[in-house]
Amino acid sequence: MEEFTLEFAQLKQRVDEELMKTAPIIQPVSLYEPIRYFLSIGGKRLRPILLILSSHAVGGSTDQAIDAAVAIELLHNFTLVHDDIMDQDHLRRGQSTVHVKWDESVAILAGDGLIGLAYRQLMKLPPQHLIPVSKLFTEGVIEVCEGQAFDKEFEDREDVNLKDYFLMIGKKTGRLITMATQIGAILGGGTDEEIEILTDYGSIIGTAFQIQDDLLDIFSSEEVIGKTFGSDVMAGKKTYLMVKSLELAESDKHRRIMEIMRSPKITRESLLEIKRIFEDTKIFTEAKQEISTSFQKANQVLDRFPHPEAAAGLKRFSEMLLERKY
């Protein structure tokens, strides 16, 4: 694992360097300064590194994958800047969000600029890959927007079930992660079988990743996760935990959660009360088990690889995600 940690750090440094090249210090300052600010405040770079590791798994190189890896990270950052506006979040990666540091108009424009830069980066791909990868990328953009729309719609609904939840996260979070594994496999020269396996792998870990995020939203501190404590719950988001709580039917704990969620203002004390209910009703335990099971399934998918040893880096990636705290 120590060897993989070093490889991960080296890939992250490469992605960070290439990212900053996409947003030059030029006019207009009101566009490029917020973009450079957001790209510079950190980020785990999980999606681009996953894309590169997927390329490696089928015999490709980092150089073959780097342009698409940067493009997918730019796309991811576009979604974050706009999500922060829609959810009125004040913190991202432990720093002020763009709409707080500047204003909403600047943040909207910065987000638009990021998706434009993503497509500019994608246009660097070799001709034989440009059309298929661009189609995947474009469909991914549409699905991410659909997922965000479902996310907003669900805030006002009390009848959201797990089927609805998995549909929403499959588009909003899972699609970008699945895109990363698909595109990486294509650029690395993978066979149809290898591309299919890595697509399945990406789909499973995408789901697990979002459930994990839902847990971290309310079970980690702001200092650790770098965003406002309980921001998803306060915004009325139908997280895995919240949807599972709806299954408590007419229990006192269910009624208490509904009372809190319907109140005009959700306080920190109320969030802590919801957190205790999640623990008391074993919802937290169930969520952790769901995550663990999903990662086991993802690794079993990798065992179908024609040469399973080639997917060792992806298995290390799964282990790292399973243990993440932010």
Q: Mean pLDDT, rounded to whole units?
A: 92
Q: What name is given to the CATH topology? A: Farnesyl Diphosphate Synthase
The assigned CATH architecture is Orthogonal Bundle
The helix content is: over 70%
Q: Give the neighbour order of strands across the main sheet.
A: 1-2
Q: What is the approximate shape?
A: globular
Give the strand tally.
2
Biggest sheet record: 2 strands, antiparallel
Strand portion = under 5%
Contiguous low-pLDDT stretches (5 residues minimum) are: none
Distance between the termini: 19 Å
- Quickly give the structural class: mainly alpha
**Fourth-level CATH superfamily:** Farnesyl Diphosphate Synthase
Task: Furnish the topology, listing elements before pairings.
Blueprint: H1 2-21, H2 29-40, H3 46-57, H4 62-87, E1 91-92, E2 95-96, H5 98-101, H6 104-122, H7 127-154, H8 162-172, H9 174-187, H10 192-219, H11 222-225, H12 231-234, H13 240-246, H14 252-262, H15 268-280, H16 283-302, H17 312-322
Antiparallel strand pairs: 1-2
Helix pairs in contact: 1-3, 1-4, 2-6, 3-4, 3-9, 3-17, 4-6, 4-7, 4-9, 7-8, 7-9, 9-10, 10-16, 16-17
Quick synopsis:
With about 325 residues, the chain is an all-alpha fold.
Describe this protein's structure.
- The chain has 17 helices and 2 strands.
- Helix 1 (2-21) crosses helix 4 and helix 10 (192-219) packs antiparallel against helix 16.
- Helices cover 75% and strands 1% of the residues.
- The protein is mainly alpha-helical.
- It has a two-stranded antiparallel sheet.
- It has a single domain (2-322), classed as Farnesyl Diphosphate Synthase (Orthogonal Bundle).
